[in-house]
């Protein structure tokens, strides 16, 4: 565990904590039955706000190698995400007029779900990812892979071997990076002249709107708004030239970044900054209120579940995303309140949630065991999951949504 020396964006020491989620196990370390009896490492999970630049980040960090080298999150597990990857590739290929001479590098390429879409459109591709276990999932796709972390050290090796990139993408990996300066220096080394970096990250405005406190876990060291992001790139001679607010995956900020002098910011940048101003994103009080509402959800959800238990109801949960681990641990919910969690990922079935030790089973169990209520931990896919579970709901089953307030649907 490393105590932060200050703000990851501007290095100011004025980072003030506003949310303490307690000491939790690593959110993606789902346990096998044999591991249940072994001691489990727990780390403080606290979030702070930089009074200098407005960046929101963890105040203590777990070393990345402990989290990303054996990784159970698989991008292709979600139908919604598959459609989104298709959309990213078709949009960016036509927007930047990419062809067979262009190289696209995806950082945190996971199982190559995004890169296969670029490959199918005739663009050269390279994946970068430190997770050795995921390399097998990308085999057979024909997509080359650099196994390691991206940064100022690895970027020159990548550029020497594969050439400089016309486009570098990072979808949902930018919040994971503690050494932002090294990462952005790496971008400058790996991008061809005029090349672009396109980042998608869970957007702080949506986190506030959805009260998505559960998206806080140790992997996510940063929670991005455009204001601090612009400051980061400006320190390295780069700038955000386009900003988009997307609905996908609980709300994303997509920023297109170029070297200063290689492109001009369009009006979307000022529009998104104005939105952030209007929503109070640059203000510490906004985050104090977020923390107060988070504590209230804990009171409400625990009361809901304990009341149902007292009435003799059977309660299960649906989805075992990393954020579910945060929610269960912060709420102190275990097998006393939830019998099992149904999840479609075969990698997770047969395992147990970190910290809370709830067994993960196949979704069919909702129909065979017929719990009366199901807590929806993967609430960002609510529409997709309610549609998939129509048979369970028609049989009288009900879902509990945890955020932005506890609600039964
Ligand atoms: Zn700062």
Describe the protein in words.
- With 409 residues, the chain is an alpha/beta fold.
- It folds into 2 domains: 68-279, 3-Layer(aba) Sandwich (Rossmann fold); 285-408, NAD(P)-binding Rossmann-like Domain (Rossmann fold, 3-Layer(aba) Sandwich), CATH 3.40.50.720.
- It is built from 14 helices and 19 strands.
- It has helices at residues 65-68, 79-95, 113-120, 135-138, 154-162, 180-190, 204-210, 226-234, 267-278, 284-310, 322-330, 365-369, 382-388, 390-394, and strands at residues 2-3, 15-24, 43-50, 56-58, 60-61, 103-107, 124-128, 144-146, 165-171, 191-202, 222-223, 238-246, 252-259, 315-318, 341-342, 360-361, 373-376, 398-401, 407-408.
- The strands form 4 sheets. A 7-stranded mixed beta sheet has the order 8-7-6-9-10-13-12, with helices on both faces.
- The model has no long low-confidence stretch (mean pLDDT 93).
Mean pLDDT: 93
Give the full name of the CATH homologous superfamily of the largest domain.
Vaccinia Virus protein VP39
Helical content (DSSP H or I, runs of 4+): 25-40%
The CA-CA distance between the termini, in Å, is 40 Å
What class do helices, strands and sheet pairing give? alpha/beta
């Amino acid at each position: 565990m490393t105590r932060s020396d200050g703000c990851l964006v501007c290095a100011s020491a004025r980072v003030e904590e506003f949310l303490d989620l307690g000491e939790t196990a690593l959110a993606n370390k789902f346990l096998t039955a044999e591991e249940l009896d072994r001691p489990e490492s727990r780390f403080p999970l606290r979030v702070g706000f930089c009074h200098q630049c407005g960046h929101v980040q963890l105040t203590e960090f777990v070393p990345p190698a402990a989290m990303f080298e054996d990784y159970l999150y698989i991008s292709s597990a979600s139908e919604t995400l598959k459609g989104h990857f298709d959309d990213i590739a078709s949009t960016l290929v036509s927007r930047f007029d990419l062809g067979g001479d262009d190289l696209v590098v995806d950082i945190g390429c996971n199982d190559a779900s995004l890169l296969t879409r670029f490959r199918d459109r005739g663009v050269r591709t390279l994946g970068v990812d430190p997770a050795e276990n995921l390399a097998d999932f990308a085999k057979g796709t024909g997509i080359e892979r650099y196994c390691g972390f991206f940064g100022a050290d690895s970027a020159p090796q990548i550029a020497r071997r594969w050439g400089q990139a016309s486009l570098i993408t990072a979808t949902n990996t930018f919040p994971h990076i503690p050494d932002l300066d090294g990462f952005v220096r790496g971008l400058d080394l790996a991008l061809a002249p005029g090349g672009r970096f396109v980042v998608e990250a869970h957007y702080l405005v949506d986190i506030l709107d959805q009260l998505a406190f559960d998206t806080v876990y140790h992997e996510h060291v940063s929670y991005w708004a455009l204001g601090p992001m612009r400051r980061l790139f400006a320190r390295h001679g780069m700038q955000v030239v386009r900003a988009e607010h997307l609905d996908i995956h609980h709300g994303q900020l997509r920023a297109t970044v170029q070297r200063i002098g290689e492109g001009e910011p369009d009006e979307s940048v000022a529009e998104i900054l104005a939105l952030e101003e209007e929503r109070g994103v640059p203000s510490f009080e906004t985050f104090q209120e977020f923390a107060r509402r988070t504590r209230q959800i804990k009171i409400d959800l625990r009361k809901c579940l304990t009341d149902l238990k007292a009435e003799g109801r059977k309660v299960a949960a649906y989805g075992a995303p990393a954020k579910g681990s945060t929610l269960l641990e912060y709420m102190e919910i275990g097998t006393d309140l939830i019998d099992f969690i149904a999840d479609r990922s075969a990698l997770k079935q047969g395992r147990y949630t970190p910290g809370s030790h709830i067994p993960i089973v196949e979704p069919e169990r909702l129909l065979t065991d017929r719990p009366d209520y199901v807590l929806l931990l993967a609430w960002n896919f609510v529409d997709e999951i309610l549609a998939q579970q129509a048979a369970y709901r028609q049989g009288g089953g009900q879902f509990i949504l945890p955020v932005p307030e506890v609600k039964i649907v």
